[in-house]
Every structure is written in structure tokens, then in C-alpha cells.
Design brief:
Largest sheet: 8 strands, mixed
Order of helices and strands: EEEHEEEEHEEEEH
Strand content: over 45%
CATH class: Mainly Beta
Shape: globular
Mean pLDDT: 82
CATH topology: Hypothetical Protein Aq_1857, Chain: A
Helix content: 10-25%
Strand order of the largest sheet: 2-1-6-7-4-5-11-10
CATH architecture: Sandwich
Distance between the termini: 30 Å
């Protein structure tokens, strides 16, 4: 993991915050390539909202921002805003495809409740 401070990145560890499955990593790499963003980051975060209280956010950025926690897995650089770390620690991101839809799926050990579609969750401290 790296912490982005200004323009400097400090290496701390790899892969302990979020795990990408091989299929999720492959889809993220393809998305970055399609957007001509090789060397960019997969931004993973949380925002308030959704039927369970918080929603996952997933986007592509050309570079990490100051204050981001940045790490690499399977050739994908992942950036997480520091305040989202407690909500996402230990999360596994998979890519699933079915007859009617395909997309990224979050498996979050910090969620005490999730909505039916899986895009929002209630974190442990709110669920108590």
C-alpha cells in the first residue's frame, strides 16, 4: 500500500485493504485500456446514500490524489480515499456476469446489512 502525500508515494504494503479477484482485475485492466488510461487508477470508495445508508463508488482516474491510499494488485493500481479505508478494509471485489447483467460485486466484511442489489450497505458501527 502507498500513501499519496502531495506528489510523493510511500510504499507500505500490498493487498491488505481490498482484494481483487482475477476476473475483477482483468475487467479493471480492460476498462483502463479502453479509456486510454494505462497507468491510471481504479478508484474505490464509499458515499452516503442508497437504501442501506452507504453506497460503493467505483471509477477510473488518470492518477491518484493527495491523501489517497494507493496499492497495486494483479497489475491494477487501486486508489482509496483515506476516510473510506475503515469501511472497505478486507473487502473482496469480484466481477460477475449473468444472463441479464454483468458488473463488479463487493463482498464487504464490515457490512452488517446490504440492499438486494448489493450496491449499498450499512457499516458495522451503524448497525449496532
Amino acid at each position: 500500500m502507498e500513501r499519496q502525500e502531495g506528489n510523493q508515494e510511500k510504499v507500505v504494503a500490498t493487498g491488505e485493504l481490498i482484494q481483487l479477484t482475477p476476473l475483477a482485475a482483468e475487467q479493471a485492466r480492460k476498462a483502463l485500456e479502453r479509456k486510454d488510461m494505462r497507468g491510471g487508477v481504479l478508484r474505490v470508495g464509499v458515499i452516503g446514500g442508497g437504501c442501506s445508508g452507504m453506497q460503493y463508488s467505483l471509477s477510473l482516474d488518470r492518477e491518484a490524489k493527495a491523501g489517497d491510499v494507493v496499492f497495486e494488485q494483479q497489475g491494477v493500481r487501486i486508489a482509496v480515499e483515506e476516510q473510506a479505508v475503515p469501511y472497505l478494509k478486507g473487502t473482496v471485489i469480484d466481477y460477475v456476469s449473468g444472463l441479464h447483467s454483468a458488473g463488479f460485486k463487493f463482498v464487504n466484511p464490515n457490512a452488517v446489512r446490504t440492499c438486494g442489489c448489493g450496491s449499498s450497505f450499512a457499516p458495522a458501527e451503524e448497525g449496532r
